[in-house]
Every structure is written in C-alpha cells, then in structure tokens.
Please model this.
Amino acid sequence: MTPLMPGPLNSITDVPGVLVGQVERVDAPYLTGTTVVHVPGTAVAGVDVRGGAPGTRETDLLDPVNSNPGANAVVLTGGSAYGLDTAGSVMRWLEDRGEGVRVGPGERDVVPIVPTAVLFDLGRGGDFSARPAPSWGADAIAAATDGPVALGNHGAGAGARARSLKGGTGAASVRLEDGTTIGALVIVNAAGSAVDAEGRLYGARYGLGDEFAHLRTPTDRPALVTPGRNLIPGPTMNTVIAVVATDVPLDKAAAKRMAMVAHDGLARAIDPIHTLVDGDSIFALSTRVPGDDRPRLTVTDPAALAQLETVYAAGARTLSRAVVHAMLAAETVDTPAGEILSYRDAYPSAFRSD
Model:
C-alpha cells in the first residue's frame, strides 16, 4: 500500500473546483479578516454546528430535508454577528456574474447561496468597532484563486486565538490511492488549547510523511502554560470554523455526514472543543468537474459505505492537520491588552535545529 501524501499545495485548493480568497487588516486598531471559499461550478453542501454559541447564515437551507442542493460560496469571517454582513457583498458579486439558483429567464435572475459562519474577535486589535466591513466579502471572493492559501494571520485568522496562543488560518489536503482529493480549511479561534501538557501540538501525530518531522517535544515551558491543564487563561468568546471539501460526488445527506465526522478532527486537535463559548461549525463541499457523470454517493446505499467511510475518515484527519498548520503559521501580535504569542515564539525548542 502506497503511503498517503498531501496534494501538491497541501491545501483545500487541491480539490478541483475550489478557490479561496482572503482579506484582512492588522493595522491598529484592526485585527480581523474575512475568508471566502468560492466554488464557481457550485457544490453540494452540508453543515454541522456543534458549538454552543454559533453565528451563522443560510445553514438551515443545507439540511438534507430542504430543497436547495448546494452552495456557490462559503464565507468564514471575523466580526462576530456583525461579520455576517460580509455575505451580502459576496451575493452581489456572484449575482453580477450570474452565479446562483436560477429564478428567472434573465442572465442575472439568480439567488446566490452563500452559507456563512463567524468567529468572535471583536476588540482584539483594541477597538470593538474595528471589524470586517460588508465590502470585505466581495473583496475576498474577487481575490479567490486555486493557488496556495495564505496561512496564519491572514483572512479570518488575522485576529484568531487558540486559548492563550495566537491562532489563525490553516489548510491541508490528502490524495487517496484512487486519486480522490480531500482538503480542509480552518480558522482556529478556540476556547480550548491546540497544545498538550508537554507543549506538543495535538494534531501533529496525524502528519503525512515528513510533514511534521521538524517538530519535537519542547523543553521550554512558557509561563502562560500550566502543565496538565488545557483551560489556561484566554478569551471567553471564540469559535472554530472550517470547510472540508472533496471531489468525490456526494449527495446532500452524505455531505452533511462528512461535516459531522469532520468534527472528530477538531476534537483530536483541540481540547476542549464544542464548548458553550465556542460556535464551532463545519461546512462540507462536494465538487464535480465537467464531464464527471458518476452518480452521487448516498448514505443509504450499502455499496457506497466503504468509500464514504474512507472519505469521512480522511476528512477528519486532514482537518486535524490543518489545525496544526494554522498554529505553526501564526505570528505573534501586539495588542492593547498585551502580546499574543505564537506557538513558534512560545515553544522555540519544539523546532528541530538539525
């Protein structure tokens, strides 16, 4: 059996038909941003919300019992509930290009479907009102490409925290033996910690090949960490939001299940997760390239179960790896409330020098 390896970019954009664009401001008093996942050919979509304090839009429409099958874009943004306004400009951008559910004969007689989830980063840069403007959504989708995704303090990860450390944007992918691709994009802004009592990143054990071979158990202990405890001092309002995607054709119920299982990836990489002060939400997307006429897999088909379980397990592990990349890419920031250390600055001995 050939060992599984990441896709060429090790990012969600390795999945055909997935584009990502981001906007952020990190100049004082701003420390926030917006990330948009654009699927120009549309994608069947599902969502699973498990945090106790979510901020979302258009999630009910993704329920398998409802009629609309998919989404044109997904917005992940800072700004708490204020950030939901960014989805409106994404809709208008898509409308101008005729992308959306067709409701009339005109070229632009469409209703774009743009599910959205927000995280709490209000005041991280020193001013409660320094949050994403509605136009940031359009700016982000206009910048979307299928190339590398900027990680760490970019997009919605600009003001993110993971307990007392700097969080951020993370991504990862895997290419299965049959050529299937699964990718993940995550904004790590958690009440819990991504770091265990020894200072190791929980999700690093799921690395593929030598992906995290440069990491080791750190010998230093920053003062902000109490050994054996994960609930160290940190923000009281948070949220981890993510998108997992695949080019395996899934129906709506199967996409919903993919989002559900992906939460296992968060639970392996962050402890605790799904708290009452987190709004943890995961979207799942199933793209289809032109010419792919394979039937969509469904959870009620016994013949599809093995392939579905393989995709779901890979999605969860890929999301765990994306959390690690978010933590490794994050950079220390100075805020009016004090410095938020990155993992690299808090645990310099975790990185091999040889």
